[in-house]
Amino acid sequence: MSKKKVSSETPPSPIYIFRGHAEQINSLEFIENNRYLISGDAEGNIIIWDMISKRSKIQFKAHNDGILNVVKCKDKLISHGRDNTLHVWKFNQLSNIKDGGNKEESIKPEISLTVNSINFCKFDFCYEEISDKRDELFIAVPSTEDSSGIDIWDITNQKLIVSSIGLDQNSKTGYCMGIKIFSNNTFQNLQSIPKNYFILAAYESGSVILWSIIINTNELMSNEKKNNVAVEKLWDRKEHGESVLSIDLSSDKQFAISTSGDNKIVKYNFDEEFRKEPLIKSTTIKYAGIAEVKIRSDGKIFATAGWDTKIRIFSSKSMKPLAILSYHRESVYALAFSRIESMDEQDHDKSTEEGKDLGNEERTEKHYLVGGGKDQRISLWEIY
């Protein structure tokens, strides 16, 4: 696609097609300042693509069943599979795997957790660097006790710190289908105790609920049984008539967008403290079934992946459609935007030394969007 403004009058075309998966693509994510693209498929395979050469750099089988989600956090690659496991891999070790790695040269994860994957809900994570010697990496996943609840794991210490959020509310939400975990902590109060985290959760019933979780992280480090966690439901909105399939949160945490098995797209505008019910704005499309939604890092636009094979671009402010991207011949299930960071963000989030093992000598600063799904292909688009 050219760098001219996208419009519905001039149907765009992908600028490249990645071919390498033999099964449906479920997960896409840009990493290492957009230098690489990670993709995960329905057979448990992960491919790391070089965005400069457009070639597969690393390929390995991470799970015994389909990949739900793959992300990178600092020097760790975290994968969530349909085999009810969550693996944490040392990113620098992946460079030892040749493209198309076989069983003999496969690596083992640094950490493996038994989690819930019954309802296809992707895990989410929240990372905070407390000091030079201490960090916190929390993972939120559907509860192993009941798929309606949510568990929070402390990955750094490999401890389950909150179990079954929402199960004591006597609400008929059905399965938890989408999770976003985040904090409202500023740099100045990162070391304060306790700390406040939030979980934005989407459910089978069509509801979206915001949970407040206050965690006393100091007491969590001990083995004594104390009341370390307080959970509160802040609000509950049911805007969808079908099961929510995806939810995404803007980088500035000012709004979220959900999509569903219906044809409705809903925007939730938050207040500064997140405690008031959000202001709702919505739009509809012609065809039902929106498998995923992703908001670009600058918050200006978002994209949806449709069962009808279309990728749609919308204005986040007006919710008006900007473009329809047509390439895929079967349903699209996964999307990812490249992240364009400010200079301050680049200085704060310095690349790890391990990243250099994969050739992290050049960054890609283009507004890329990728989409993948049932046709096993990944389309690459350049969006204004």
UniProtKB/TrEMBL annotation:
SMART domains: WD40
InterPro entries: WD40/YVTN_repeat-like_dom_sf, WD40_repeat_CS, WD40_repeat_dom_sf, WD40_rpt
Listed Pfam families: WD40 (PF00400)
Alphabetical keyword list: Repeat, WD repeat
Region ranges (Disordered): 344-366
Swiss-Prot/TrEMBL WD repeat ranges: 18-59
Database matches in SUPFAM superfamilies: WD40 repeat-like
Lineage: superkingdom: Eukaryota
Family according to the record: Belongs to the WD repeat ASA1 family.
Name assigned to this protein: ASTRA-associated protein 1
